[in-house]
Amino acid sequence: MPAFESKKAVVLLSGGLDSTTALAIARSEGFEPYTISFRYGQRHDIELEAAKKISQRFAAKGHTVIDINLRQLGGSALTSDIDVPKGRDAEEMAGNIPVTYVPARNTIFLSIALGWAEVLGASDIYIGVNALDYSGYPDCRPEFIEAFEKMANLGTKAGVEGKGFRIHTPLIRMTKGEIIKKGVELGVDYSQTHSCYDPTPEGLACGECDSCLLREKGFAEAGIKDPLMYKK
After folding, report:
1. Is residue 123 included in any domain, yes or no?
2. How far apart are CA 187 and CA 196, in angstroms?
3. CB 37 within 8 A of CB 16
4. pTM of the predicted model, to two decimals?
5. Is residue 229 part of a domain?
């Protein structure tokens, strides 16, 4: 296993707006990014092609796609034959954990990213979770990230040997509008990103799911035109 290098970072990259901005921030902070994406049985796997292009644009040192079939577990509108909620307002989004929540998804993804980071000799992991403009997912909260980082340093060889891991969440306290402004400042081309939970067969965003509505809200707040193509 290679010696740890402070400038390597593993970045979780879905191909969406937030993870792309997190990648841009990691690069701007001097890290050499290794991007990791997941084909997990999601209905919106068009995002994986976006992730590949974005990874190339930001000159990631490596990009890997992990296959893990969470559709076998189900329990989510993203991995089961359950309708994706449409047209919800901000109050509804904040009310309950929605059916688009994928059970334990960020725990699983971060665990695999942690394993790759240990193999690479990277002590830094970036994830684009957000606790303000989000759909109420429990695994996007600061408490979860803090607990995972503690676990990472207790349950790995690198952690036990004192090298340690840091989970970076640069977007966690930002509004969607602030995230977009930051991304534009760092050269993110948001036309390459994909956010929709329920795209058309042609790859057009539905414009009505929680993710689309939050994205539209963010671009409106930022005063920037969203370059993504929508069905409507």
Report:
1. yes
2. 22
3. no
4. 0.94
5. no
